[in-house]
Amino acid sequence: MEKILIVDDDEPIVESLKFAFKNQYKVYLAYNSEEALEHYTNNEISVTILDLKLGNEDGMELYSKIKDMNPEAVVIIVTAYGTIKSSIEAIRSGVFHYLTKPIDIKELEFLIAKGAEVNNLYKQINFLSAESREKYIKDGIIGESGSIKSILNTIEKIKDIDSKVLITGESGTGKSLIAKAIHRQGNRRHKKFYAINCAAIPKDLLESELFGYKKGAFTGALTDKKGYFELAHGGTLFLDEIGDMDLGMQGKLLQAIQENVITPIGSEEPIVVDVRIITATNRDLLNLVKEERFREDLYYRLNVINIHMPALRDRPEDIVPLTNYFIYKYSRLLNKEIKKIEYDFIETLEKYELNGNVRELENLVERAIALVEGDVLTKKDILSHINKDEKSETFINKKLIPIFVGQTLENIEKKVIESTYMECNYNQRETAKILGITDRTIRNKLKKYIEQNDKNQ
Ligand SMILES: Nc1ncnc2c1ncn2[C@@H]1O[C@H](COP(=O)(O)OP(=O)(O)OP(=O)(O)O)[C@@H](O)[C@H]1O
Ligand SMILES: [Mg+2]
């Protein structure tokens, strides 16, 4: 059970909160700073709910002490003195959220659940210890998901045998990485690994690239040239984007891999080759077979072992470890010291539609590290590089706020405006744009909220 700590000097409130949450959480109570710090130190508290007005004590001071002990502490501030201004200042200094009294239990419940999630995220963010980093860097394949584990397991089984491997999956999912890993881990590792992108080499050149040619075989063939099959002898040939190979070449490839023999262009003498063949494609080969654009016999020859790389959206649990790894990688490469990663940095990446898969995630992290000011990564470091429209659609819409039946429209409007304002890093103009209202309206509304809060004090 997750543990929460409630700090308030008002006994009836504390008791009623305990009653409200005792079935979901292990609840610790504190009526003053001293008790609060004691609970905080001795128990692994996920979320702290702190009333700013603590008898004669200053809740903000207690808050600072907790944050000194644990900069990642998730604290929800409750206050009767909730002017937007002071709350915003509080949030700027790392408060997770604030609530004004009287407490809406449902809203608090929502915030605690969210806070517990954030707390878990923090725990994972810096999980890469020095030893595990070394391990990761050696293998180069990061992933916690069942699918990555099962792929690693398959690699282990097939690394030393020569069965042909077809790696499928969307662009940027790690197909090339896996091909290299199979070679590096297998018993051909001391021999050459060549990767040939069949889509990048012009149709007419592919044959001579793969099989080589004899001097004088065609105009421009001034000397003999070895093809990749010969160069990779004893090693591995990785044919990437195999789906883009034209039909004529497919026939020649089929012959070569069936007989383990190639004939350079312009030569009469076949050469025996010993090459492990790994292929990859982001296209649907079976469909190409149906359309008669890919030879069926070749398809079955190549697809003895199929490794399918799932898209990142289908294995979201890999995003945190991958992000950790890329932060580590690029902070070293770019010589930047990153001291802290805010949970919203990871949260933003988790919500982002990473259609470019791992490659896109890697680029976003590299760019954030290259351009970060200071040594803390926050969601701003991702957001500021993406255009506004994309941003409002991708992020703002996905952030939830609790709205319950029976609230006044004015109240709901206030919640939407305040939380969008926070999401926009307190930028009025941007908030207005996203909400589709004028700068003037937003200015007036925010002013009104501050006045209302002042009155409630
Ligand atoms: N599981 C992973 N762990 C660490 N890095 C990864 C992982 N998967 C992919 N990457 C990195 O993401 C980038 C893209 O991966 P890769 O080039 O292997 O993808 P691909 O599927 O071959 O893409 P394409 O279809 O465009 O050729 C590379 O920099 C790679 O190192
Ligand atoms: Mg690739």
TrEMBL record:
An MF annotation (GO) of this entry: ATP binding
Domain Response regulatory as annotated: residue spans: 3-116
Sorted UniProt keywords: ATP-binding, Nucleotide-binding, Phosphoprotein, Transcription, Transcription regulation
Superkingdom assignment: Bacteria
Protein name (record): Sigma-54-dependent Fis family transcriptional regulator
Any GO BP: regulation of DNA-templated transcription
Listed SUPFAM superfamilies: CheY-like (SSF52172), Homeodomain-like (SSF46689), P-loop containing nucleoside triphosphate hydrolases (SSF52540)
Residues recorded with modification 4-aspartylphosphate: D51
Domain (Sigma-54 factor interaction) ranges: 141-370
InterPro entries for the chain: AAA+_ATPase, AAA_lid_NorR, CheY-like_superfamily, Homeodomain-like_sf, HTH_Fis, P-loop_NTPase, Sig_transdc_resp-reg_receiver, Sigma_54_int
Claim: Magnesium is one of the keywords in the record: no
